[in-house]
User: Which sequence fits this backbone?
């Protein structure tokens, strides 16, 4: 007695018409052969793979990023589940949503002689903030900007095994492992810029090694990777150089930070004498804070708030004020807030259609209208919930 | 063994002597009365009358105590007063204190069946089951009456009436009910023979003549749902139809208001269900009534819930929403819902811990020494 319909209307054939997807369903119901694979695709896919050309009419549709580009642009930064999905489906499909379109519009229209504008993407858990950020990062890398992408600032304030006292400044602490990992990924994503940008000062790494003035930035990165002890200082140098040279106009700079509320919260790290470490005492965090200040021009700063990795914050907090705290809010003020909400009905339909098309939903009831309504109810149109629900099906 | 002192009167009736007391030790096992052999306790008529007087007096006293009018004090008022004065948490309703009319308390018994000269009143007394056999005779007499009537109609060439008696809504008396009616014990065989005879009687075409007699032995079976009153839909200011329902599960109590023309949005205690019930299982429970009726995206719901844990609150809201949906739904669908178990209160509650055990069922760890 699971459903009334099966009981009463077994003899009648229900005919649900869905204007948007009738064609798609007819094509999908005959799962044996897909005679017209292009027709269903056209409804919720778009072949426009350049984010620069995405407009409102592409809203709710999924676009494809070729896998080589994914490896080049996103060595780090994509959510873990999305990476698994890329591996399963052998393609990377990102949905075009309104918050991302908003930011792209602002970026296209912004004047780069003015100080950098800060955008803060916020929203409830699992609504797609990191994916929005990745969309923006893809756009900027296509446009040829230098992308400074920090995948999750929370990784720098928790679970750090090694803390070294910084040689540059006695009060600060270094994190060699995190810094070297980040440097490696930065190198993969921005190869050509590292050759073009030249240092403007001489830097001393300890007593014997130094980098002369006018050397390409790639050397600093190599130095940081080779000598892990000075990796954090190398990061600091890279950030400084890039910031100073961005306003000259030879390149545009995008600072993309995911989980920016980590920079102003508390850490779970402790010093050797068991006293807690505050974020300012970490070199990486200190340098990153300088980047996020809007005292430079020639680019933009796009950040995301994240509750999932945050420390000592209740799970119901999602507004900037709650997650950043007073200090962070004052530091980031003024900024442009971009809220990200759950899927709209259209976006939900397109995500559902995509799962159906890739045969991710194997359950026979999942193909029906009722199944779709059930999925929508149970997930509350939340992207993360939908993803987790569709997994076992 | 406890010793009992027996007073012996003087055995030899010679001179008046003081009564001799002899100590005889006996065990209680010998002295216990054999309760089963004497049958159920017999009450005399005088006893019953006295009980009735006492009951009436007590009723008036109770009415006085509660401050109500003694003349118009009904049995329901008595029940309410007793429940108020002697509150009891016992689950079995029949174990709680009660005050009822003596005829309900003391079972009906047979008065003595023979006169002063020792001759029994009824002619079938010596069969042992006089009421049963007299009933069988009576029923057979009616049967023969009907046959005679049938023959008469055939002789007059009149059509035999063939109105089908509605057997669906009625049932025969059970064996226990019949025993109560006849005031004597029956065996299963006797009972089945009587029911067979009744069925034969009813099967005859002209059985309508004896309809009164047959109805004494049949009872109506009410369809479950007839007792439940469906509330009509209410309309709020915007003209949207809505209805309310209440539900409970374990210690959780919930009220739900279901609105028509909705998008499937559900709010619990002011928050969205995705935030209030992070666990999928609870949301599935909320989904069940709507999915069963096929109305997932058609109604909005606003609920309030308190008490219990997460699962109990989910069950309470499910019951409340199912009850509220009754107003939107046809009777047939409501019957389906009832059969699916959506409208029944779940009676399972936490079982009481017993003394001498660690929990309701778990015993203490058994140690050999």
Assistant:
């Amino acid at each position: 007695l699971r459903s009334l319909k099966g009981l009463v209307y077994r003899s009648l054939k229900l005919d649900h018409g869905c204007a948007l997807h009738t064609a798609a369903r007819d094509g999908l119901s005959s799962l044996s052969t897909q005679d017209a694979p292009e027709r269903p695709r056209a409804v919720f896919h778009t072949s426009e793979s350049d984010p620069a050309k995405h407009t409102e009419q592409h809203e709710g549709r999924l676009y494809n990023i070729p896998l080589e580009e994914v490896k080049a642009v996103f060595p780090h930064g994509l959510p873990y589940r999305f990476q698994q999905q890329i591996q399963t489906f052998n393609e990377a499909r990102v949905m075009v949503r309104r918050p991302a379109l908003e930011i792209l519009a602002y970026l296209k229209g912004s004047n780069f002689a003015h100080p950098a504008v800060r955008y803060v993407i916020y929203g409830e858990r699992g609504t797609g903030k990191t994916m929005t950020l990745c969309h923006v990062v893809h756009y900027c890398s296509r446009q040829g900007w230098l992308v400074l992408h920090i995948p999750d600032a929370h990784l720098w304030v928790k679970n750090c095994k090694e803390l070294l006292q910084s040689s540059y400044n006695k009060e600060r602490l270094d994190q060699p492992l995190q810094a070297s990992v980040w440097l490696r990924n930065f190198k993969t994503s921005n190869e050509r810029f590292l050759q073009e940008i030249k240092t403007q000062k001489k830097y001393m790494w300890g007593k014997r090694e130094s980098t002369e003035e006018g050397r390409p930035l790639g050397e600093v990165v190599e130095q940081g990777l080779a000598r892990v002890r000075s990796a954090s200082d190398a990061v600091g140098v890279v950030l400084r150089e890039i910031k100073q040279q961005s306003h000259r106009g030879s390149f545009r700079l995008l600072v993309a930070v995911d989980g920016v509320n980590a920079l102003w919260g508390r850490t779970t790290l402790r010093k050797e004498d068991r006293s807690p470490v505050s974020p300012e005492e970490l070199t990486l965090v200190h340098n990153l804070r300088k980047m996020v200040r809007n005292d430079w021009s020639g680019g933009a700063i796009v950040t995301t708030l994240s509750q999932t990795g945050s420390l000592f914050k209740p799970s119901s907090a999602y507004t900037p004020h709650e997650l950043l705290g007073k200090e962070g809010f004052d530091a980031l003020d003024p900024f442009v807030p971009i809220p990200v909400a759950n899927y709209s009905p259209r976006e939900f339909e397109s995500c559902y259609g995509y799962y159906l098309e890739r045969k991710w939903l194997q359950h026979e009831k999942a193909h029906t209208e009722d199944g779709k309504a059930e999925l929508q109810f149970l997930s509350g149109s939340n992207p993360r919930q939908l993803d987790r629900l569709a997994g076992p099906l | 063994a406890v010793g009992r002192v027996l007073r012996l009167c003087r055995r030899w009736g010679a001179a008046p002597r003081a009564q001799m007391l002899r100590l005889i030790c006996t065990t209680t096992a010998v002295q216990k009365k054999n309760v089963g052999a004497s049958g159920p306790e017999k009450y005399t008529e005088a006893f019953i009358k006295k009980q009735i007087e006492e009951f009436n007096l007590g009723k008036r006293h109770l009415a006085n105590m509660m401050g109500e009018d003694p003349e118009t004090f009904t049995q329901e008022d008595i029940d309410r007063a007793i429940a108020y004065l002697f509150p009891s948490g016992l689950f079995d309703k029949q174990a709680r204190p009660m005050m009822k009319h003596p005829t309900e308390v003391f079972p009906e018994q047979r008065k003595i069946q023979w006169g002063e000269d020792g001759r029994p009143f009824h002619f079938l007394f010596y069969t042992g089951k006089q009421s049963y056999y007299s009933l069988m005779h009576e029923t057979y007499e009616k049967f023969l009456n009907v046959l005679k009537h049938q023959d008469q109609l055939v002789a007059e060439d009149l059509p035999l009436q063939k109105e089908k008696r509605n057997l669906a809504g009625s049932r025969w008396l059970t064996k226990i009910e019949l025993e109560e009616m006849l005031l004597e014990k029956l065996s299963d065989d006797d009972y089945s023979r009587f029911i067979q005879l009744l069925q034969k009687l009813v099967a005859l075409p002209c059985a309508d003549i004896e309809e009164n007699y047959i109805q004494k032995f049949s009872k109506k079976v009410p369809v479950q749902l007839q007792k439940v009153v469906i509330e009509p839909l209410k309309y709020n200011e915007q003209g949207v139809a809505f209805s309310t329902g209440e539900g409970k599960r374990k210690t959780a109590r919930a009220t739900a208001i279901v609105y028509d023309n909705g998008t499937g949005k559900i709010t619990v205690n002011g928050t969205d269900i995705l935030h209030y019930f992070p666990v999928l299982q609870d949301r599935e429970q909320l989904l069940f009534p709507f999915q069963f009726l096929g109305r997932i995206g058609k109604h909005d719901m606003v609920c309030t819930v308190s008490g219990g844990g997460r699962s109990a609150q989910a069950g309470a809201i499910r019951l409340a929403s199912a009850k509220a949906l009754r107003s939107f739904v046809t009777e047939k669908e409501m019957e389906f819902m009832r059969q699916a178990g959506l409208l029944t209160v779940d009676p399972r509650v936490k079982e009481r811990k017993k003394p001498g055990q660690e929990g309701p069922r778990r015993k203490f760890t058994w140690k050999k020494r």
User: Anything to note?
Assistant: The CA atoms of residues 247 and 320 of chain B lie 4 Å apart. Confidence is low (pLDDT under 50) at residues 1-7 of chain B. Chain B touches chain A through 21 residues (CB under 8 Å).
